[in-house]
Amino acid sequence: MTTKRKAYVRSMPASWWQRLGFYRFYMLREMTAAPAVWFSIVLIYGVFSLKHGAEGWAGFVGFLQNPLVLLINIIALVAAAIHTKSWFELAPKASIIIVKDEKMGPEPVIKGLWAVTVIVTLAILTIALLF
Question: How far apart are CA 5 and CA 14, in angstroms?
Fold first, then answer.
């Protein structure tokens, strides 16, 4: 049997996320996906530039030296740092670690993730500078 009543649909304004700081930060974190896509496309372009030898690589380097591209890459770096920070802060909530019958706080996990990030980054930079 069908009803003639109209279904209740709660209205949701487009600015729903602007009400609370938690939602604003959530939307900021979600918006970091766009610069990540940009970085991925630039990386793929660089890999395909290698296919065309020195001329292709020179064209890619010239592209990277464009002031607009440099600005977009700086924005992508900041977005990646924001995304990394937010995910490192969420990691302790996803895994509960018990040490001596007590739940470990989030600080050691967050500091450990940052330490691994710094060590791996320095290792990659060292290898890149040596070769």
Answer: 27
Helices then strands (H, E): number in the chain? 5, 2
d(CA 93, CA 109): 10
| Structure letter (DSSP) for residue 18 | G
> CA 50 to CA 9: how far, in whole Å?
54
pLDDT digit of tens for each residue in the chain (131 aa)?
A: 677 888 888 888 888 889 888 899 889 889 999 999 999 999 999 999 999 999 999 999 999 999 999 999 999 999 999 999 998 998 998 888 888 888 889 999 999 999 999 999 999 999 999 98
On whether the CB atoms of residues 86 and 25 are closer than 8 A, the answer is yes
**How is residue 54 written in tokens?**
């020195």
Cβ atoms within 10 Å, residue 83: 18
